[in-house]
Structures are given as structure tokens and as C-alpha cells.
Amino acid sequence: MGLHRSTVAVLLLMMFILSSALDMSIVSYDEGHPDQSKSSWRTDDEVMAMYGEWLVKHGKAYNGLGEKERRFAIFRDNLKFIDEHNADDSHSFKVGLNRFADLTNEEYRAMYLGTKAPSSKVSKKSDRYAPRVGEELPASIDWRKKGAVTPVKDQGSCGGCWAFSATGAVEGINQIVTGDLISLSEQELVDCDTSYNEGCNGGLMDYAFEFIINNGGIDTEEDYPYKGRDGRCDSYRLKNAKVVRIDSYEDVPAYDENALKKALAYQPVSVSIEAGGRSFQFYTSGVFNGICGTQLDHGVLAVGYGTENGKDYWIVKNSWGDQWGESGYIRMERNLGNTATGKCGIAMEASYPIKRGQNPPHPGPSPPSPIKPPTVCDNYNSCPKSSTCCCSFEFYGYCFAWGCCPLEAAICCDDHYSCCPHDYPVCNLNQGTCLMSKGNPMAVKALRRTPAMPFWALETWAKRTVLK
């Protein structure tokens, strides 16, 4: 009997200890996740209403079955993160529902980041902007106010941030030297600078500077406009439209925020940062003091520095449109005493172009590129220039009917009458759309093929087109 009572007592004691431990774990979790301690967060109706407004504002529509519901779950989770962050007074910046609110952090990083660390990069070290004892620099500078920064641009879902950072730095030094602010062509870099850089799959600003130097200049954005995807290099414009030239480029002394500050006192500077964090993804305002490392994955443009309420910051121009951040900009914490890398690695790989003289006379808009020959399908049929031949009827390995997709390097879909751009290579036959990858929410409408023409008919059509 005594043994039985002692056993019961031990069991009761163990249950008490276990329940106490569970209570402690709940308290600990609530302290780390303030919204969980509340009996309610936001009602489903409230979140759904916000989701509907967000869809309208950003022009979002989903084609896949169940995709809207899946994106709502992601939106809800991101909204919860945003509310939780903004309720924490330890942050000196705010986050909000921007264009990325229906993307997981993994999707965001895959689609919008694009700086690639080179396997072997030629060093362009220079002491030009090395800090000197006793020298005085401006307490603040903003090259936007000096007319050396073009309006914020939007790279879209192309990972060409490196091209935007490079053109921004060249635009800046060109204005400082010549007095002319000229918006330059990122698409020319994406299409033509392919020796080391990889277009929408990433690149490095230093290689872009080298390309501009070796090419003898770069074209304007107006003449060689941005398309947001990889394309074929327009060699005619590459050779004949060299509007802005630079003479050289150099790297800012690494791991030294004072050196970066000195460089910025003289010109806008290309910088690489780690931008993959969730707080960076949803940044809307304030001095960014969020958690980030030094895995450099995004190219941006530093255009100044300043101080607000005792907090020093860098002024950084992004390339995600003017609806992100502070009208397209982010202010990043400056003068971090506990690291030499700067916030998010901003002081690790900064570089700038050098320009000593004026540009050649402005050639004006380029004339149309020379007429391209037709695309040959077989011995009898062809498609117009800059198009793709797709077999529409095949029998025993022979194609008896051809169709023309009005894009270069297009993907021919299996339904024999539609096609997709090469950067949206997955044909969704049920929805009539083209996807960037299987299960990816980014989709465009599939294109319809037109019948191919015999050689003699195409030649007649081409002559009529030229005469018009």
C-alpha cells in the first residue's frame, strides 16, 4: 500500500514538472513572437479584404488552379511578419505590403537578386579615396540634389541589378564632368556584356565598367530601351551609338566605411550588399538596422550619406521601381563600430568609374538596324526575320507544315499552334500561358503561331514592307 502511494506521488510530481515546463515554453515563445500572445491577430475577413486590395493595386492575377489560395497563405504569413516587426520599437525602420507580399523569401531571392561573386576578379585597388589624417569631408551629401542621379528604374524579374548599379555610377560621373544627366542603357549591358556577366542571371559592376571602356562607350536608354529579359545583342547600335564614355574604373579601399564616405563625397558609387533578408524584402521607410550578413547578392548605387536623430546612414538607390522603400531608395545604417564590412557588406566591394573628358558629339537616335534575313525552316519555307520556326505537322520525323512564332529563340509548345518566350520556357497548355519554371507564379500569355511562307512569297512581303 505504501509502495502504491509513493508511486502515485512520484507520478503526480512528474506531471507537475512537465506542465510547468510546457507553461514556461509557451511564455518564452510569446515573448519572441508578440502576436501569438494575443487571443486574436487579424480576422480572416480582414486579411482577405487586404489581400483583395493588394491584388488590385499591384495588378496581380493568377492562372494556375489553386494558385490564388496558395498566394493568399503566403500573403497572410508575410502580413503577420510585417505587423510583428512594426510593433517592435527596437527597429529604426518600418516594413510594409509592397509588390513582394505574395512571394516567399526564397522566391524573392531567386527572382530579384543578381550580383554574382567572381571566381577570379582582377583587382583595381586604388588609394584615391583612402582617408587622410586631418581631412574634412561634408557632414552629408546627396547627389540627387546635385542633379547627378536619374529617376529610379525597375529591373523587373530580371536579375540585372548589376547593370543598373553600373549605369547609375556612369550616369553620375558623366553629369559631374559634363553637366549632362543622360539615362543609359541597361539592356545593352544585359544583351551584349556576356564575356563574364550573365545578363538576367547575374553579374558584377566592375565587368560592366570594363565592357563600356573596351566598347568605347554606351548607348542611351531611349535608343536601346530596357525589356526586362535577356535578348540578342543589337550589334549595330553597339558599334554606332557610343554616347557616354568613361576612361577607367577603380575599387574603393575595402572594409573601410570612411573610404566609402570619401568616395561618395566626390561621386555616386556602385556597391554590393546582402539584400536577401525578409526585412529588406519588405522595407518601406526609416534607417535600416535589420539583420543581414555579407553574402553579397545585390548590386545597388550609393548616392550619399547623412544623419537623422543621431543615426548615421547611407542613401542607396535600388532598381525595384519607386513603389519600393522610400520612393525607390533605402537608408542603411552607417558607422557600425563592431564591423569593418559596413551594413550588409556595403563597404566590401564598392567601385566607381573615372571620366576625364567630354563625350563625342551626340549622334542622335540610331537609324533602324540593317534588315535581317528571314528565318529558314526548310528548303521551301521561311519565317520573317527575328522569328522562330515551329513544326505544326510532323509525320515519321518529317515536318510537312511550319508555323512562325514572332520571337527569336522561342519555345514551340506541344499543341502545335502556340509558343513561348525563351525566358518563360514552360508551356501551360491548359491555361494558355508560359511560366518561368514549373509551378512558378510568374506567367505571360502564350503567343499564337502564323503559317510559314514559301521563299518567293516571303521575299515579296519583305519588299512591300520596305517600300511602305
Automatic annotation (TrEMBL):
Cleaved signal peptide residues: 1-21
Peptidase C1A papain C-terminal domain segment(s): 137-354
Ranges where the Granulins domain occurs: 377-434
Keyword Transcription regulation: no
Family: Belongs to the peptidase C1 family.
Protein name: Cysteine protease
Native species: Hibiscus sabdariffa
Classification via CDD domains: Peptidase_C1A (cd02248)
Keywords: Disulfide bond, Glycoprotein, Hydrolase, Protease, Signal, Thiol protease
Keyword field contains Repressor: no
InterPro entries named among the record's database cross-references: Granulin (IPR000118), Granulin_sf (IPR037277), Papain-like_cys_pep_sf (IPR038765), Pept_asp_AS (IPR025661), Pept_cys_AS (IPR000169), Pept_his_AS (IPR025660), Peptidase_C1A (IPR013128), Peptidase_C1A_C (IPR000668)
Residues annotated as domain Cathepsin propeptide inhibitor: 51-108
Superkingdom in the source lineage: Eukaryota
Family matches, as SUPFAM superfamilies: Cysteine proteinases, Granulin repeat
